[in-house]
Specification:
By secondary structure, the protein is an alpha/beta fold. It has eight helices and five strands, in the order βαβαααβαβααβα. Strands 2-3-1-4-5 form a five-stranded parallel sheet, sandwiched between helices. α1 crosses α8, α2 packs across α3 and α6 packs across α7. The radius of gyration is 16 Å and the shape is globular. It starts with a strand and ends with a helix. The structure holds adenosine-5'-diphosphate (ADP). Adenosine-5'-diphosphate (ADP) binds next to α2 and α3.
Amino acid sequence: MIGLIFGPPGSGKGTQAAHVEREFKLSHLSTGDILRAEVARGTEIGKEAERIMRAGDLVPDDLIIRIVQGILRDPDVSSEVLLDGFPRTIEQAKALDQMLAQEGHKVDFVIAFKVPEDVLIERLLHRAEVEGRADDTREAITERMHEYKNLTAKVLDHYRKQGVKVHEIDGLGTVEEVFERIRQVVNREK
Ligand code: ADP
């Protein structure tokens, strides 16, 4: 089973993805986490990505596609995957579809969080104080919202056109309340 989880920055995507991973035994693959680990380790990829990420922009498609390809080709990675933060552009979506098709797989379900923008900004500025993530500045937050609205929304349409159901989840409420909404949706897909 291959699931995609989408949500604007601050929508609680990472938290919910961790719950989905545990409950449905999917491997959670977050491109944001992978890139932050590369930056922390100071690798070549990390050096290339650091400045771009800090500004809230997307790293180049070919870079992120190569990373995901490397992981999905790894025989140790199961075919039960929850992708978080990828694909974010149409180019990335097409590359993913191709990678999956080679293995006879396809995207099975898509979850997309909906949260009002003022709530998102409030949550992210709060997280900035608590966690100090480099891209949680007001400027970078605005840029990330902008990227999400402009590019990622098109990815949702790409999957809708293919007949993949996009489940829009209300991201307001407690972590448990939101997860319950997801659980119902994923159970129906199984
Ligand atoms: P958020 O959803 O809070 O913006 P993520 O942790 O998913 O955060 O991603 C953080 C940053 O990592 C993005 O702003 C971007 O710079 C980079 N990134 C992550 N995934 C991708 C991707 N698929 N394509 C391009 N850049 C990405």
